[in-house]
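Table 4 source record.
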Amino acid sequence: MLGIMEWYWEVGKLVLAAGMGFGGGRVAVLLDRRHKKKEENLAKEADWVVEWMAGDTWVLTNIGSADAADVLVEFEAFQLTRSRLQPEHPMSESQDFMGIRRGASQAVITWTNPRGDQKGPVRRLIPPRGS
């Protein structure tokens, strides 16, 4: 039979183990939340679409899930006549430009993501007028 001191020791060990288990569980939950948030942030990225607006005007829209900085747009087979393209391009924002298509025109886009990584170049077709 256990003595009083041994009994306290056994109960104390159980309480200590339960406390450590609870504390360890809390730490695991917090680390899991941090990991998921980091994965969500890594998945966020800018993406682009070019659409005809009217006349000789097209719009470039950031349809992605993150803002873009240091945006540079170069054109292939397209004679640019006017541009309102800015180096900062928040998500869901459209910026317009005007010009004349010369065949299979494309916009070639490079940018910096919110983590500071250089992205692109990506090519987007400049659709024909009226499409």
